[in-house]
Each structure stands twice: as structure tokens, then as C-alpha cells.
Amino acid sequence: MYKVIATDLDGTLLNSDHQVDPFTVATLNALDAQGLPFVIATGRHYCDVAGIRDVLGIRPYLITANGARVHAPDDALIHASNLPGPVVERLVAADTVGAHGRVIVSIYTDDAWLIDRHAPELLAYHQDSGFEYRVADLRAHASAGIAKALYIGDPADLADVAQNLAREFGNALYVTYSLPDCLEVMVAGVSKGRALRVVLDRLGVDAAGCVAFGDNMNDIDLLETAGHPFMMNNANPDLVKRLPLVPRIGNNFEAGVAHHLCKLFALDDELAS
What we know:
The chain has 2 domains: 4-80 and 190-272, HAD superfamily/HAD-like (Rossmann fold); 85-187, Hypothetical Protein, Haloacid Dehalogenase-like Hydrolase, Chain: A, domain 2. The model has no long low-confidence stretch (mean pLDDT 96). It contains 11 helices and 13 strands. The chain has a 7-stranded mixed β-sheet, with helices on both faces. With 273 residues, it is α/β, with parallel strands linked by helices. Strand 2, helix 3 and strand 3 (61-64) form a beta-alpha-beta unit. The protein is globular. Helix 2 runs parallel beside helix 10 (256-264).
């Protein structure tokens, strides 16, 4: 019945410190040994997720930048969607972001996380991978094959940014929240769910055989695509309202995904540990 496992990272597979729990590592390796394919589906950068994958000790498919990039287990790029250069120039412009300067802006190239200022507090999210940003003039990199633009700031400021984007671009962009203080922008047509379908087609597996886990608004399409979706108990209340029929499981800070996988696959918790 369950043929593929797909999971978000932050708020889902990772704990409250945005790190991998040892029990999660043991559980995923036990299932990997049975030949089950894994898919990590996240808003994070590919280089960042590759580091987390190494900590997990498995070779999953990697859906990154909310679906703008898909890499096979051998690291081959099998899908990419970029924001057009002129659009990126507008995404990082002061009149889009807010002349007040309170919103941190960054963009993802294929191999770098570029940011408009130093923000060392963000590095706490990348302890397992060691992935770091590089401060740069974002306008100078607008045509560098940008997968995603990311705004970090107070939710009220981000709401203003979202309104600016809707007014200027309409449906030409996919705009979503990964956290209340993180607004993410990709080209229209990008989503974790669509990227998951790319992987499932490659595996020759129907969506009905896919188990998926998520916790936030950028997981909507992922959970709607999978035949067996599950939502974390710590999920964003707006996600709960949007997908009220999706079953809720444990918390990310209690290795909820791993414990639920043990139930689904009749894997003894003690064996996994």
C-alpha cells in the first residue's frame, strides 16, 4: 500500500532546533534498508538539504526551493524552474520590499544563498548542513538562474510585500509562507506537489501509494497530491483550516514523523532505535 515516503523538513522531520533527531535517523535507515524510496520536499536550498541528507544517511530524491529544483538520489538535476531576471530585479527592489529596510531579502542560485545583509541568527537553521549565506548585491545576480526569492521579517511587513507582489505580478508567481515570518516566491507552476509528481512518474509509482508529511502552507499541494497525507500536530492553524480532513499526527519536536512511520510500516520502535 505504501510505496514512497515524502516529507517536509522544518516543523516536520526536523526537531525544534531544526536538526535531525537520532530516532528519526534510525527509523528512516530501517525503512531504507527495506528498499522504500524517500523524497525530501522543502523550501530549503539544494546544497543545504544535501548536507542534511548526509546526516540522515539515506539517498532520497530532493525537492528543494518549494519545487523549483528536483534532484535524483545520485544528485542529477531532473527538474528546474527559474524566476526570469527582470522579475527578480523587481522582487529585490526597495519599492517592492519596503523602503523601511526591515525585511531581509535573499535569493537562491543553483549553488549559493545570496542575502542583502548579514543575518547571523539565520545560521541556527543550518547547523546540520553547515550551509551559509553570502552577502551580495542581489540585483547583480538577477539573471543567475534564480530558483527562489525569500523575504524574512515581521508578518505585517511581509503582508505588505505580498500585496505588492499580487498587485504587480498577479498569477505570474507562486507566493507562499513556510513560516509566519518567511515569505517565499517562485515562478508560477512551481510547488512541492508538482515536483512530487515528477518524482513519482520517474519511479513509476501512482500518487495513491505515496505517504506525505507536512506542517505549513507551502505543503498544501504536497499533501493534496499524496494518497496518504499526514499533518503534524504542530501544524500552522491556517493549514489545518485549509485541509481539515488530513489526519494529524505527533509533533516535530517529538520525532512525530518517525513514530508514525513505525506505526504505518509495523516497525518496532525499539528496533528503529
